[in-house]
Amino acid sequence: MTAPRKTQHRGTAQKKRRLPSTPARRLDMTQVMEWKDGSVSKLDDYLVGEEPLEIRLGARPINVTMRTPGHDLELAAGFLFTEGVIRGGDDIARMSQPANRQKHNVVRVNLRAGVNIDAARLQRHFVSTSSCGLCGKTSIDAVRVRGIARPNPGLRFAPDMLCLLPDALRSNQTLFGRTGGPHAAGLFDASGTLIVLREDVGRHNAVDKVIGWALLEDRVPLRNSVLLVSGRGSFEIVQKALVAGIPIVACISAPSSLAVQLAWEFNLTLVGFLRGKRFVIYAGEQRLRLTEKNGI
Question: In CATH, what number does 159-294 get?
Answer without folding.
Answer: 3.40.140.10
